[in-house]
Amino acid sequence: MSSVSNIKWTGVRSSPYGIEPFPQPEYWNKAMKTMTGYFSGSIPVAVWGIGEIIFDDTNSGMKMGFPNPAGKYNDDNGKIRFSEEDKYEKYFSYFDSQGIQVFLQVESGFADIGLLIDATFQQYGHHPSIIGFGVDVEWYRSKCDGCKNEPVTDELAKVWEEKVKSYNHSYQLFLKHYDKFQLPPTYRGDIIFIDDTQKFSSYEEFLNEMIDFADYFGTNSVMFQIGYKSDKPWWEQLPQPIPQKIGQDLAQKSSNRDVGVIWVDFTLKEIIP
Q: Residue 112 pLDDT more than 80?
């Protein structure tokens, strides 16, 4: 077990498309607790996608993994598409009893972020496991798969963070992107910034990018979303357990802030069967 003291969170990214079949709550708990076991004192955490983007040019929006709460929430002219059933309630209910913390993530397209925050916390805000909300900025106002997103301004970041904290002052907002310049240039607040860059030619290149990203955001908390298939040629060569090795190296190079180490669901079963 690593004793690196600035690793606050360790866990997984969950998305509707990352693992098939989608695991039961017990597996996710096992995966997060395995990650936590590598780092003494860390908190098991999930960056949990509660739906996915639907591309339709400027009508691109989000398919949510739950019904419209009480049938009364604004669907933003069809850009927010609710489901017939709740896909995630049983997961969060289980996590409530397991000491797990969860950030709820959206892939918004052109759907209004404020409306997504409202619907999300109306549906899941009663769970003690829920500790925040996040935006995968790669899909913010993106017209198609591969199209550019719009960057998040300081003003937007402040508005979104205030909206999230209006539900619970202890909630945190995270903003995720592989390009730091797509994230707010100066506003920091209490935001957690997540780097999900992939397709590195070497471990050294990976470490340099991640630390450059972390340094850009000063003393704010950062998370590193790691384990992509495109990077497997180098990460599979690292000493076992691989998440511990990567987390130790990242944390030691970013010692002035709280750090999270998040293994992406695409390869999760390869490291935690």
A: yes
